[in-house]
Specification:
The chain is of the alpha/beta class. The protein has nine helices and eight strands.
């Protein structure tokens, strides 16, 4: 695959473009319905950009890096048959791509924000394609960006995306709730950073199961009840209770 065009201009598109260019993969064109977003990526990387699907130029690979709900519709408008088209979603099946072109998936397992610098070498890329030749080409492409490229089918990829939501999105929301508690006593989130960093660093040496600490692991009902009494919001009270019960169940044979 000599040339790549990106469909979309959000966080994933921004970082994929940067990763491809860094690894001397030619990005030919950026398309996005909002021209200013395509322009932001295009001008920063000296890539042609457009907001008109009719202006799409032929490339070896089209990467649809757009929201899940937009993938199917966008895939209908790629006007070439003898190309390959992939999407980057963790949950949408490959069959959502509509067209006579070759189809696949190029799913990077990472949380992407435009204002963050990432080490692309360590980002896992999960690959799916209709046939072995296309899968091999996608693995080769991903291998130029990352040291961690692996084949997964749609069901496996959806389960991995679920794992990522547990391990990233939900964890980050816990940080938000922790920040709100600290603010109630006029303390900065910075006081929690050393604890959070050590918790994250521990799983470099320990499994998450081994790294668990806290009142729920000990089934310390007195502390758990004190915490529940401190929480006024019924939703957050239930989150604390349900998480504690899950931890207690996980370690019940050790109590």
């Amino acid at each position: 695959m000599q040339t790549v065009s990106i469909i979309g201009a959000g966080n994933v598109a921004f970082h994929l473009t940067r990763a491809f260019i860094k690894n001397t993969i030619q990005v030919k064109q950026i398309y996005n319905r909002t021209l200013s977003k395509a322009e932001r990526i295009g001008e920063a990387n000296s890539i042609r950009f457009t907001d008109k699907i009719s202006e799409l130029e032929k490339a070896d690979l089209f990467v649809i890096a757009a929201s899940d709900r937009a993938i199917e519709e966008l895939s209908m408008h790629i006007p070439f048959d003898d190309v390959m088209v992939v999407h980057t979603s963790g949950t949408i099946p490959m069959e959502a791509l509509k067209g006579n072109y070759r189809k696949g998936v190029l799913y990077p397992l990472q949380t992407f924000s435009i204002n963050r610098t990432l080490d692309y070498d360590d980002i896992p890329f999960f690959i799916e394609a209709k046939n072995k030749e296309d899968a091999d080409q996608l693995l080769k492409l991903a291998g130029r960006v990352s040291n961690k490229a692996k084949l997964l089918n749609s069901e496996q990829r959806a389960k991995m995306h679920l794992a990522a939501v547990w391990g990233c999105n939900f964890v980050n929301h816990m940080y938000y709730l922790a920040e709100q508690e600290a603010k109630k006593i006029d303390l900065s989130f910075d006081y929690l950073r050393p604890l959070i960093e050590e918790t994250a660093n521990k799983i470099s040496d320990l499994s998450p199961y081994e790294a668990q600490t806290g009142p729920a692991k000990r089934n310390d009902k007195i502390i758990i009840e004190k915490h529940l009494d401190l929480i006024n919001d019924p939703l957050y009270k239930n989150i604390y209770k349900e998480l504690s019960e899950s931890i207690i169940k996980t370690y019940q044979n050790e109590l």
